[in-house]
Design a protein that fits this description.
The structure is a single chain. By secondary structure, this protein is mostly helical. It contains twelve helices and no strands. The radius of gyration is 18 Å and the shape is globular. The termini are far apart.
């Protein structure tokens, strides 16, 4: 049964990265295998991933159900599964507009993920925190988390987690006066990553990005420049516009001039 569960949840993860709704079916299959032939430990370990998969594809009802079941099972643990669970729960809370809960859960996930060295989960967790803080009106805290997300994503050996971080950084830019040019460049770099990997991102996070693209297009119809594929430049720009002591040079948007 271990191989069957692993295969089902693995396929769910692959499809979820592409926002394919079929991922939720594979997650459900894995959970049912755990219930019928697996152990309680296996179920507790699999539920968080199932919740994350369902949130990633917009099946919030299933995600809420898996989160509710897994929370008491992992309440006293400090392990990867709990970090994934808290991240998924934060994503669901953000989608529900429960900003306080999203920040509380995201903060717990970020603390545990950092202390356990689970670098892969940090870009998304910090992006969720940044978005919740931004929606609550705390732009400085959002900028701090967005910068942390970009830094964590760039430290990984694969690039696709960077897309949501750059998008989040762009949202923060648009909440600050005079940063629409930078936002356009960050969004363009994120779009390149998503197009390369066929990874459109979680449905619940897309509306804000679409609105940001429209806002940038309205303000700067000639953005972005030809350097959109230069991810190092995008990361450097994010660091420039998000850091607390930022001082934007006059040519920050030169690619859009």
């Amino acid at each position: 049964v271990d191989l069957q569960v692993g295969a089902a949840i693995g396929m769910g993860c692959v499809l979820a990265e592409r926002a394919d709704r079929r991922a939720a079916d594979f997650a459900a299959e894995a959970i049912e295998l755990c219930r019928s032939d697996g152990s309680a430990e296996q179920l507790a370990s699999t539920l968080p991933t199932a919740a994350m998969i369902c949130w990633q594809v917009g099946d919030l009802e299933s995600a809420r159900r898996y989160v509710a079941e897994a929370m008491p099972l992992l309440a006293d643990s400090r392990r990867i599964a709990r970090v994934v669970l808290l991240g998924a729960a934060a994503g669901v809370a953000l989608a529900d507009g429960d900003l306080g809960t999203a920040i509380e859960l995201g903060t717990m996930a970020e603390a545990d993920g950092s202390s356990l060295g689970i670098e892969r989960e940090l870009p998304l967790i910090r992006s969720l925190l940044a978005r919740a803080m931004l929606e609550r009106g705390d732009v400085k805290a959002a900028a701090r988390q967005a910068l942390g997300a970009v830094t964590a994503a760039r430290s990984l050996s694969f690039t696709f987690p960077l897309a949501v971080c750059l998008e989040t950084a762009a949202l923060v830019c648009l909440a600050q006066p005079g940063d629409s040019e930078a936002a356009g460049r960050l969004l363009a770099a994120a779009a390149v990553i998503r197009q390369r990997g066929n990874r459109p991102g979680p449905p619940t996070l897309r509306p804000a990005v679409r609105q940001a693209r429209a806002a940038v297009a309205a303000q700067r119809p000639d953005c972005p420049g030809d350097d959109a594929a230069d991810l190092d430049a995008a990361v450097a720009l994010a660091d420039l516009v998000l850091r607390p002591d930022r001082q934007l040079p006059a040519d920050v948007g030169s690619a859009c001039q």
